[in-house]
Amino acid sequence: MRQYLDLIDNVLTDATYKPNRTGVDTLSSFSQHYRIDLQQGFPLLTTKDLSGFRWNSLIHEFLWYLSGDEHIRSLQKETSIWDAWADDDGRLDTAYGRFWRRYPLPKDDHRFEGETWPDESHRWCNSDGTFDQLQYVIDTLKENPHSRRLVVNAWHPANATVSTLPPCHYTFVCNVQGDRLNCHLTQRSGDTALGIPFNIAAYSLLTHVIAQETGFEVGTFGHTIVDAHIYCGTGARGQWYGDNLEELRSRVTAVDAPEEYVEVRDWLREEVPAGETDPRGKPYDHVPNLLLQCSRAPRDRPTIEIEDVPLSDLTFDSIQLRSYDSAAGLDFGVAE
Ligand SMILES: Nc1nc(=O)c2c([nH]1)NC[C@@H]1CN(c3ccc(C(=O)N[C@@H](CCC(=O)O)C(=O)O)cc3)CN21
Ligand SMILES: O=c1ccn([C@H]2C[C@H](O)[C@@H](COP(=O)(O)O)O2)c(=O)[nH]1
């Protein structure tokens, strides 16, 4: 997908060197945005393989979002991608679906005079005093599709100050134009190599699922990433990027044919100090493999087929990826 390759190029050419809490340094860019037309096929990247075990992780993560679970006990049976942020009982101190499906409502004595709040018998209030934002969006799309208030918010300001990992993709808005359903995601922090490909696929899938349930065609996925970053390594390896950023930026800026990204990668490999890998043996420095990805031509997009059942009945087998043809898989280490 062209938008993703442009994102990599934009981050590299606009980069600031930013060490951060993980100990794996980044090259970071502020406020990246793109739009993806979902009518042109499903935007699962084709410049690296995201089928097989990666597709398995992606779909189970998506079903976990929909579930509203505050823990990852079911998800852990299928993939380990969230394990590092959970405790021994599979609990997380922030979970997307928990806020999508069960956003906390203020208790009676925190409701001030003059304010309007739904009471517990309201159709989108759950019996435990929480609010189902996703159901609100689905019902409103059916009843009042031109609403401009179709917002789902996974950010709880107080929880975010103490959580180990407050939500990265923290709010999305559905918006209808004609017979098409669009979805816009705002993400505060985006790991370009690992998180973003999953996030694009998950929210595109969400758009398909909601569109099918509410009778719309899919439209556009819009994505804003506030801190879009590329992990570039620990210690001397990370620091090398800080010291040589101008040279890297000018080499990437000078690229005018895809295969030239490989020349930048070859220069880098000769110059850069040896780097570390994560416990699974995957490199913390994502730059070389992202340059390789930029040299690959995007292939035709696959399509997606979703069983026509209510959202709460969706299972792994309800979602079928068709005609997916990709380049070889690439390894990227996870910065914890
Ligand atoms: N640094 C970092 N990047 C992320 O993308 C990220 C986090 N942390 N923390 C929370 C979640 C977990 N997410 C993850 C974590 C790991 C993979 C990952 O390793 N993906 C591999 C496939 C691994 C597998 O399926 O087992 C990949 O090649 O895409 C992807 C998303 C996204 N998030
Ligand atoms: O869905 C996700 C979840 C996480 N990420 C990335 C973005 C960052 O690299 C880390 C989170 O670290 P913070 O210090 O909290 O920003 O995880 C992602 O890209 N997508």
What is the strand and helix layout of this fold?
Blueprint: H1 2-14, E1 16-18, E2 25-37, H2 53-67, H3 73-76, H4 96-101, E3 103-104, E4 130-131, H5 133-143, E5 151-153, H6 157-162, E6 169-177, E7 180-191, H7 195-214, E8 217-233, H8 235-243, H9 245-253, H10 260-271, H11 287-295, E9 303-306, E10 319-322
Parallel strand pairs: 7-8
Antiparallel strand pairs: 1-2, 2-8, 3-4, 5-6, 6-7, 9-10
Helix pairs in contact: 1-9, 1-11, 2-7, 10-11
Bound molecules: 5,10-methenyl-6,7,8-trihydrofolic acid (MHF) and the ligand O=c1ccn([C@H]2C[C@H](O)[C@@H](COP(=O)(O)O)O2)c(=O)[nH]1.
5,10-methenyl-6,7,8-trihydrofolic acid binds next to helix 2 and helix 7.
Walk me through the structure:
Keywords: Cytoplasm, Methyltransferase, Nucleotide biosynthesis, Transferase. Its EC number is 2.1.1.45. (6R)-5,10-methylene-5,6,7,8-tetrahydrofolate binds at residues 191, 335. The protein is α+β, with helices and mostly antiparallel strands. The protein has one domain (2-84, 168-322): Thymidylate Synthase, Chain A, CATH 3.30.572. Helices cover 34% and strands 21% of the residues. The strands form three sheets. It has a six-stranded mixed sheet with strand order 1-2-8-7-6-5. Strands 3-4 form a two-stranded antiparallel sheet. Strands 9-10 form a two-stranded antiparallel ribbon. Helix 1 runs antiparallel to helix 9 (245-253), helix 2 packs across helix 7 and helix 10 runs antiparallel to helix 11. Bound molecules: 5,10-methenyl-6,7,8-trihydrofolic acid and the ligand O=c1ccn([C@H]2C[C@H](O)[C@@H](COP(=O)(O)O)O2)c(=O)[nH]1. The ligand O=c1ccn([C@H]2C[C@H](O)[C@@H](COP(=O)(O)O)O2)c(=O)[nH]1 binds at residues 21, 165, 168-169, 189-191, 195-196, 199.
